Amino acid sequence: QAFKIPSGSMRSTLLEGDHLFVNKFIYGVRIPFTRKRILRFTGLERGDIVVFQFPTDDLEESHCGSVQYGKDFIKRTIGLPGDTIEIKAGQVHVNGKLLADEKYAQYVDVGRQPVYPTKLKPEDYQKLWETRKLDAQLGDAMRDNFGPVKVPAGSYLMMGDNRDRSCDSRFWGPVQDHYIKGKAWVLYWPPSRIGR
User: Looking at 9, 155, 166, 169, which residue is catalytic?
Assistant: First the structure.
């Protein structure tokens, strides 16, 4: 399926207006009228860039300043099912270890917000994140300091490469498998940027 990059959240990996093809079969074929998949060639891996429908069935749910229901997003897979993810002063930690070699990550703001202890209990933090209500409690403070949260079974934590300008799983929670549409495959426009 053809897809056009709508925003700068994946800069500089993908730019606004880039056109790419999304492989909708690599993660399996959805059975119509169900949330099940068959014929999976592979599962999502950390670092995969994927297109997915915003993970809510609520037509009124608002995040990052607007209603997101039904919109397609493109982000990078950072957290896999069962992973514990934490961000400290902008740096991503997976299962207690710094996620090294994030050459794709871009930071445009000078300085990182210092780590402030949250008054939320860990189990309340997790529940608010999973139910997409954490941003209402903490707002932009989660950009540089987030978690720890455990990615639920059958779900993923997605982030934009342009970390300071991305509305992503930090703010609106995990992406369940049935919302995944496919993997970014080939960039075909503009000609100067053609490639896998």
Answer: 9
